[in-house]
Amino acid sequence: MTATPPVFTAIVDTFYRPAMLKEAVDALRRQTHRDMEIILVDNAATPRTKDYLRAVTAEDSRVKLVRFEENQYSPEDPLKMLDACLNAALEEAAGDFVWYQSDDDYVSDDYAERMVSLFIENPDCVTAAGLPVAVDEGGRRLDPEPRRSNYRPRFMPGRILAQDVLRGGRTMFGAPGTIFTVRREALLKAGGYHRAIELSQLYGIVPFGVTGFDETAVLYWRRHEGQLNKQLSARGWIGIDETRSLMRDWRIEERWRVFGTEAAREVAARVEKRLSRTSGLWFVNNLLALRPAAGLRIARKVWYRLDFWVQAWAYLLDLLRKKSSRAMDLLRRRINLVNRIPH
To answer: Which of 57, 124, 163, 225 has the highest Cβ tally under 10 A?
Structure first.
């Protein structure tokens, strides 16, 4: 009796980028893994985007559409849309393995096939990832070669990977946290999609099983000024409340006790410390960009953390040092130019 081939589910939410969305969906429709389920979430999309969604749904039976009459984005709760849109799609998902990507990214044609192969090859594999490659809006590569991170074995304990990231390691992992494809039952058991989506996968799912990696499966991670994370950071929304909610709602410290008391304490302490340090960076960035309201929005949530002030001060001094160094280099070049002029 022939086993039923596993189904790979890809979830993409969208609002207003029909051209990029088409590129993302075309790549999913070209996948060499034939058993695909593509769930597109219409987050009260713009008319042109809706036209494309209707057309592609009619053309391809593998495409499902989840519709919202009202946009789930809220200025006062901007990450609410992840919770609403992605979990609505997850409820419709029938695939064995589930992958979420933004509508401005796209993947290599064999991405799903290579992810499925990892799960089949190792039954203990709970999460799997490919190699992220940063590109600009035109698809031109931005990352330097050779790459600086994502050097890890094909299979490894997820806890080791998560702890390496926690401790500041940059060699094993460097990617948007949503790069992980997850066994559907594991994703549902963990609680679905959390608003702190990247950290929820890194610390709430990846550690509790084997994680797979195939560097020949490529996620083209598009960087541009319209990226939501850039827009939110400039307004002082950097996921402080969402991260703390994740630690509380998913009982991360308690669940990590399976790795020992010290490991559980470490994850709680280091997540908060990294959050404080990230807050320090964005606090300074926003103040220097003359966005005091955004800076104060950050500071009022972490002002009592010494890590926050240490990082903010160190970052500011580093920026001033670099600016001074550039000014001195410019001055030296001008002096050298003057010295070359015949007198």
So the answer is: 163
**CB–CB of 108/221 below 8 Å?**
no
Q: How far apart are CA 330 and CA 306, in angstroms?
A: 36
Phi, psi at 98, each rounded to 5°: -120, 135
Q: What does the pLDDT look like over 186-228, one tens digit per residue?
A: 999 999 999 999 999 999 999 999 999 999 999 999 887 777 7
Q: What six digits make up the tokens of 188?
A: 């549902």
- 105 secondary structure, DSSP code: -
Token pair recorded at residue 1: 């009796």
Alpha helices in the chain (DSSP H): 18-29, 47-59, 80-81, 87-92, 111-121, 158-166, 184-190, 197-204, 228-233, 240-249, 252-255, 261-288, 292-302, 306-340
CB 215 within 8 A of CB 130: yes
- Give every CB contact of residue 99 below 8 A, 6+ residues apart in sequence: 8, 9, 10, 11, 112, 115, 180, 181, 182
Tell me the average pLDDT across 231-250.
90
pLDDT in tens, 62-81: 999 999 999 998 877 878 88
Tell me the whole-structure pTM to 2 decimals.
Answer: 0.89
In angstroms, the Cα distances linking 240 to 47, 245, 274, 295 are: 34, 9, 11, 13
